[in-house]
Specification:
mainly alpha; 17 helices; three-stranded mixed beta sheet
Length: 505
């Protein structure tokens, strides 16, 4: 007979070893692979999306917003660098919040991250289609409808993620270095043509300056787009159960990745804005880096070829965030928050193929829905704000988790300790809430934000009506239910604790 235990408003069930055998992962990633995974996940933000901040805040508004958001990500990354090796589970943000705030807190955090990681590839693939089409037009005269481009990208890169963790990580390393190389080429080419006057060439509204053409409110409106320079660096804890040494490598890769991204963000913001048509010329472009290449090299084949290379940044993020949503869905399903069938992995490849296919289908459907609803206009920036909605809720919950874990579980092993501590987490949490509020400033983006808010509410209703009665002791739950005594899969394996042995009440 299956052992069950009710803990508060949720119910746990024992499962046998076969349950975990069908949900196995394979350890493969080292520190540099994880660094590449983190950098590749974010790098598309330097290729597209960030420039919409110029449209709502001007250069000054976006610059100040970027400084504020950099502070937020510093606090976030230091905090998860401490939490991840202490709680080395695939659940990542959900795992932290589960031990800090119980099942409901864990689910809300995991669901917010789920929204972020399912929507973000839909954003990136939209921009990838925008980059790919003019390149193919110029090179071979081939015109492919945008929805077909999206489908091609999803099929290729969901398939690559299903092939195995080895292929996923090796491709991440290659594509991360290629993307950084493309950016480096752009920086070198742009420096001689840089014109500081182009940074502030957006005509200001009456009473404002060219630096802040839309006033102080433009800073707040630009926050979601500044987030695009860093969004998804926090996915690295999701690789904990596929890392060879998660206690050492995950924090190291996270912090090195953040440093890399700070430099690329600063250089792109100044150099891409300061060439060609300047801020005015790229404020609504779906392909700002390609616009920069064209301004420097002309609109002939050379720019088209470089535009093809520029696709690497978008492909990098698309590929690696598919990895992230696959592990997010997998971990929530393995623990029972989502239906259990979503977490089944491939018998030999040990990849969560069901979760990968499911997240891809939802992302592609979102692209189609918004593309048809809006007649193809403003899809990318609307999707971007939808992704940021999930991200900033997840960030706030993770910062709250960090503070609570310091108080509730002060004696668990912490291989890395954040130098900015609870005050750094607190500042990051406040900025995350401010960013959440900024999403409602622009009326045109509100329908998309309301849409993901409905997704959020429906997910909570599902858990309240069904999921809360189907929880099992996955590593995240095992750690929480034993207050850190068990739930270290890299040391103990899986399924070593039964519900009758747990201490949480």
């Amino acid at each position: 007979m299956t052992q069950e235990r009710k803990v508060g408003s949720v119910t746990y069930r024992d499962v046998d070893q076969q349950y975990f055998d069908k949900r196995g992962l394979k350890r493969h990633a080292g520190a540099w692979m994880l660094w590449a995974l983190g950098v590749a996940a974010v790098i598309s933000g330097d290729f597209s999306g960030w420039n919409f901040g110029l449209d709502v805040g001007g250069f000054g508004g976006l610059l100040i917003a970027t400084v504020v958001i950099t502070v937020m990500y510093a606090g976030l990354c230091y905090s998860i660098a401490e939490m991840s090796p202490a709680l080395p589970h695939t659940g990542g943000a959900y795992s932290f919040a589960r031990s800090a705030m119980g099942p409901w807190g864990g689910f809300v955090t995991g669901l917010a991250e789920n929204i972020e990681y399912v929507v973000t590839p839909a954003v990136v693939v939209f921009f990838a289609g925008a980059y790919a089409q003019p390149v193919f037009d110029e090179l071979v005269g081939l015109r492919i409808p945008q929805p077909v481009w999206w489908l091609i990208f999803y099929v290729i890169f969901v398939g690559l993620n299903i092939i195995g963790i080895e292929a996923t990580m090796k491709f991440s390393v290659v594509i991360a270095f290629l993307s950084l190389a493309v950016l480096a080429i752009f920086y070198v080419l742009a420096i001689p043509d840089f014109d500081a006057a182009l940074l502030t060439n957006i005509a200001p509204d009456p009473g404002n300056t060219s630096f802040l053409p839309f006033g102080m409110g433009g800073i707040l409106a630009a926050l979601p787009f500044a987030i695009w320079f860093y969004l998804a660096i926090e996915e690295l804890p999701l690789a904990a159960e596929e890392s060879m040494d998660p206690k050492r490598d995950v924090p190291r890769a996270t912090l090195l990745g953040l440093i890399t991204l700070v430099f690329t963000a600063i250089l792109v913001l100044f150099l891409n804005t300061g060439v060609g048509g300047g801020a005015e010329g790229i404020r609504t472009s779906g392909e700002p880096l390609l616009e920069g290449f064209r301004a420097i090299l002309g609109s002939g084949s050379s720019a088209a070829l470089l535009g093809l290379f520029a696709l690497t940044g978008l492909i990098a993020s698309f590929h690696t965030i598919i990895y992230a949503y696959g592990r997010n869905i997998f971990s929530l399903s393995r623990a029972g928050y989502f239906p259990h069938w979503m977490s089944v992995t491939h018998g030999e490849r040990k990849t969560p193929w069901v979760a990968l296919l499911l997240g891809g289908a939802i992302g592609y459907g979102l692209d189609l829905l918004l593309f048809n609803y809006s007649a193809g206009t403003a899809v990318g920036d609307a999707l971007l704000t939808m992704a940021v909605f999930g991200a900033v809720i997840s960030y706030f919950m993770q910062m709250l988790s960090f503070i609570l874990l310091r108080r509730k579980l002060p004696n668990i092993r912490r291989p890395y300790v954040s130098p900015v501590g609870t005050w750094g987490a607190g500042i990051a949490g406040v900025i995350a809430l401010l960013s959440l509020g900024s999403l409602f400033i622009i009326p045109g983006y509100r329908p998309g934000v309301y849409g993901v808010a409905i997704w959020f509410v429906l997910g909570i209703l599902y858990f309240g009506l069904s999921g809360r009665n189907k929880l099992v002791l996955s590593p995240e739950e095992e750690f929480a239910m034993t207050r850190g005594a068990h739930g270290h899969p890299e040391e103990e394996g899986y399924g070593t604790t039964h519900v009758a042995d747990t201490t949480e009440s």
